[in-house]
Fold this protein.
Amino acid sequence: MSALRGLFAGELPQLVMFDLDGTLVDSVPDIATATDTMLTSLGVSAAGEAKVRGWVGNGAATLVARALKDAGLDADNQTTAMTLWRAAYTLCCTRQTRLYPGASELLAALQNAGCRLALTTNKPIQFARPLLEHLGINARFDWVLGGECVPEKKPAPHMLLEVMRDAGIGADASLMVGDSSADIGAARAAGVKVAAVTFGYDNGNPVAGLNPDLLVDGLVELLP
């Protein structure tokens, strides 16, 4: 029996909601480029990819705030910094971002098995959409929600609840797949099961300690 069927009494979930950064794609190289461009434009040193990797997962505004704090810059710089970051990321968001192994195969297999698929990401929708198109997976999703599409980003449950409501599918037949405390918190708040990948971004903290319903080292482990 597949790992997914094991969570749902031998059946597949009717609805699977995916996080993006750190779950389906490794986007840190491009995010780091934009962050470092922003920082140097503000007259401070670049942070580097290793640091930025630990700042991803709670949306662009939180990422920028963490970068400013690390650089010793006052929070009053947030608005200017966000403008700089968005401009930089617009130019580079598809340069080095890649799908994780098994991501494309998993989405195709779930869709072919009749599962409804949604993307529920804290990433701004203006970047999520072009990225999905560039990677050739946009058509896999029935819903794509970014951080600004709902009143509160994950770990609030708004994105998940909106998708389930629109799909007409209950929490008992839905699954969240993510990599961070934000994803697990949103799933718990929405009352849905959650599968977590071990290779993503969560401020450098092991996601295993958050006790997801299922923990996988690779996306192929979720194949139906």
Q: What stands out?
A: The CA atoms of residues 39 and 46 lie 6 Å apart. The mean pLDDT is 95.
